[in-house]
Amino acid sequence: MMDLPETSMINFFNTVLISLSELTPTGDSCSVDSLISQCQSVVFGGQRGEYESVLSHCKHCGLLQIKNKNVTISALGLKFLSANRERYFEINEAQKQLITERIIFRGSWNNHARELFEHFSLNQTSAVYELSVIDSSSTKNLNATIHFFKYLGILQEEEFVIQVVRKYAELVYLLTADSKAITEQQLEKILMENRKIGAQAENAVVEFERKRLEKLGKPAQASMVKRISTLNAAAGYDVESFDGTSDDISPNRFIEVKATTGHEIRFYWSSNEMSVAKKKKEVYWIYMLKEFREDKPQDSVPIMIQNPEYSIKKSDYLTLEAHTFLIKEIAEVELSEHALEEIKWYQLV
């Protein structure tokens, strides 16, 4: 297992990727020597040895591909670079979250996370994973990992207790569930905060649909859009709406709302939701809200997936894990952009 890099090295990931993008504007490859020379010219006093180590870490965590002494940027590397639109050399919060979600919990560094979180326990009162600093002598050899995870914003320390930041609790559970038993009641507490986000996301979709229908000149239909998840939890969808192509007052767009605070498309789809989608076909939609913020719910632009039971299965860039019905992004998702005056949405192609 390759050691985690020093936190000071992470900033050099940007130096490497920015330099590579300048050397290969069309996305082809360049030699390792050319890339190192470019990095050294960008950062005064940079040593070849340190950049060889940076490249090794970038390759290990999937940001770069190196073959026959030639280097190319990967799809994940492009995501990492696009999260730094200003092209600053210092890593930003969006990049830290990308590292956390894609490399720490679901990538080449997850062994470090698994080894650390085996020592954490769930506080049943607060539904937070935590580790006592006083009673954790067995984890002294993991101090470097703890420091690294604090730097990324995965962990926080309060009154001699190290806690997992709440938004990453479910990822910790998924990482350790196969080796640490947890009761259904405990998991329910972990997911409670996610449900709060889900409820806010559903309200945001209701408002979005009302605006969309009003722009289409359907004020009567707009007034009839409603959230039904609070009335019928077994319906298999959350919002009843209209496609806006007629004046019919019978709902003909049934929307299941999914939300995540992360950058990628990733959500759980229950067997009941899948069954309803199979029956309703073209009138069933999933609205996915990425990077959802509780304080600014209206800022999240929905990604719409029509007839998901069919379109997800035929997709080359989404995968469905049969055992858990976990839908997650495995390649860059192809989306088409749509707008109706000032409101905008994306749709799965």
Give the gist of this structure.
With 349 residues, the chain is of the alpha+beta class. The protein has twelve helices and 17 strands. α1 packs across α3 (48-60).
Write up this protein.
By secondary structure, this protein is α+β, with helices and mostly antiparallel strands. It has 3 domains: 7-90, Orthogonal Bundle (Arc Repressor Mutant, subunit A); 110-176, no CATH class; 184-348, no CATH class. It contains 12 helices and 17 strands. The protein has helices spanning 7-23, 32-42, 48-60, 75-82, 93-104, 110-117, 143-152, 169-176, 184-215, 219-224, 271-280, 308-314, and strands at residues 30-31, 64-67, 70-73, 121-123, 128-132, 155-158, 161-164, 226-227, 239-241, 253-259, 266-268, 284-289, 303-306, 318-321, 326-329, 335-340, 343-348. The chain has a 7-stranded mixed beta sheet with strand order 8-9-10-12-13-17-16, sandwiched between helices. It has a 4-stranded antiparallel beta sheet with strand order 4-5-7-6. Strands 1-3-2 form a 3-stranded antiparallel beta sheet. The protein is globular and about 70 Å long. The mean pLDDT is 85.
Topology at a glance:
Blueprint: H1 7-23, E1 30-31, H2 32-42, H3 48-60, E2 64-67, E3 70-73, H4 75-82, H5 93-104, H6 110-117, E4 121-123, E5 128-132, H7 143-152, E6 155-158, E7 161-164, H8 169-176, H9 184-215, H10 219-224, E8 226-227, E9 239-241, E10 253-259, E11 266-268, H11 271-280, E12 284-289, E13 303-306, H12 308-314, E14 318-321, E15 326-329, E16 335-340, E17 343-348
Parallel strand pairs: 10-12, 13-17
Antiparallel strand pairs: 1-3, 2-3, 4-5, 5-7, 6-7, 8-9, 9-10, 11-15, 12-13, 14-15, 16-17
Helix pairs in contact: 1-2, 1-3, 4-5
